[in-house]
Amino acid sequence: CPVTMFLIPGIFPLVPGMSLYQTAQALVSSDWYLAGEKGLTTIKFAVAIVGGILLGFEIPQKWIKAVFTFTGLY
């Protein structure tokens, strides 16, 4: 099975939807301080999710390749 079949449904519960909604609500109500605070939180969550996905994909591949190269099976 392609990895996107499992990756997409796993990402949707992680998306920081509530903080994104609160950012938009603060922007509409012209509360710039709260909008900046919530927006920064939303960006931090998004970066953390992307970083976790990248680590989850890159580290196992490099580790497996290194192990198989070391043992002569690759």
DSSP strand count: 0
Tell me the overall shape: elongated
Question: How big is the Rg?
Answer: 19 Å
Q: Which regions have little confidence, pLDDT < 50, spanning 5+ residues? A: none
**Multimer state:** single chain
Query: Major sheet, described briefly?
Result: none
Instruction: Label the structural class.
Output: mainly alpha
Distance between the termini: 23 Å
- What's the order of the H and E elements? HHH
Strand content: under 5%
What average pLDDT do the residues reach?
82
Question: Helix coverage percent of residues?
Answer: over 70%
User: Count of helical segments?
Assistant: 3
Description:
There is one protein chain. Helices cover 81% and strands 0% of the residues. With 74 residues, the chain is mainly α. α2 packs antiparallel against α3 (32-71). The protein is elongated.
What is the fold's blueprint, element by element?
Blueprint: H1 4-11, H2 17-28, H3 32-71
Helix pairs in contact: 2-3
What key phrases describe this protein's structure?
single chain, 74 residues, mainly alpha, elongated
In short:
By secondary structure, this protein is mainly α.
